[in-house]
Amino acid sequence: QVQLVESGGGLVQTGGSLRLSCLASGRTLSSLAMYWFRQAPGKEREFVAAINRHGSSTNYADSVKGRFTISRDNAENTAYVQMNSLKPEDTAVYYCAASNYYHYYPDISDIPSWGKGTLVTVSS
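^ thats the sequence. predicted structure below, dont judge the formating
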C-alpha cells in the first residue's frame, strides 16, 4: 500500500508560482502512474494533471494547460506539479494520487491511493 504526502502549498499572489511535491512511500514510484487533483471550496474534486510511470506521457485539464507542469523523479520517489501564472480560481486543496495503471483521463473512481492534500491559496 502506497502512502502519499503532499507539500509545498501556501499563499501566493495572482501571477505567482508554486511547486507542489508528493513523496511516496511503501511502493516504488516507478510502479505507479501519478496524478494531481484539486478541490475548491464548495466544489467537487477535479482532475488537474496525470503522468505515466516513466514520464513519457502527460495530460492536463484544459483549465491548467500551458500553466502547470507535472513531473516525477522516480529515484527520489517524488512527483511534482509546477504551477505558474496562478489565478484566484486555482485556489483549492491539491491532492496527489496514484494508480497501478495509467489513466489519461482519470475519473476519481479510477484512483485507489490518495494523499491528504495541501492548500493553495491565490490572492487577487
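Residues 72 and 79 are 4 Å apart (CA to CA).
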